[in-house]
């Protein structure tokens, strides 16, 4: 059947099994002038390519077979199909199907068996990307949680691509000394400054309130900013700028 479908091969490599050493096979090979090669007995390494393929088939069936191992014969067509379309990177660089028919197998999806060495090589990159992404997510969550615990959050991005405004609860609880119906809040002074995500925030001390809040720069009046920077410049330590050296050339 193989001869009628693919033609006679130039040589056949087989073990010393009775089915390959029979008189029928001998007569057939003599008729088609096929050279026969037999591997050494009890030395499977002499036909390592075939033995390696048998091991791959057995390992694949072992992972797919049922617990009672009664359906292995039904899995052989699917396993062989996957192996025939898998690229052999060690020898030819082509799949058995492409070597035989000159084109890739037409499939609606990819079921090829990827070599284990290639899969193992991608694991460090995948783990590195996952670790970096998780680290960035934890840092963002910690910043948001700290603002919520401190009661200093006015506008926070709770979830990615889901920004929402939150009114500070400290502003709704007035002291007994200034318990009136006025909803306007007067800023007394600015205490500190921080920068987050490219924006400036200022720590505001409100008139009649004990707790302070962090407000974005666009919510701060110009007078408070001028007063803050003037006081900061006078009381703070100025950085010394490096002075340039002038070298006078003499003739």
TrEMBL record:
Coiled coil: none
Gene Ontology molecular function: nucleic acid binding
PROSITE patterns, A to Z: CHROMO_2, INTEGRASE
GO BP annotation list: DNA integration
Pfam family, one: Chromo
InterPro entries the record matches: Chromo-like_dom_sf (IPR016197), Chromo/chromo_shadow_dom (IPR000953), Chromo_domain (IPR023780), Integrase_cat-core (IPR001584), Retrovirus_Pol_polyprotein (IPR050951), RNaseH-like_sf (IPR012337), RNaseH_sf (IPR036397)
Domain Integrase catalytic as annotated: residue spans: 1-104
Protein's name according to its UniProt entry: Chromo domain-containing protein
Domain Chromo: 185-244
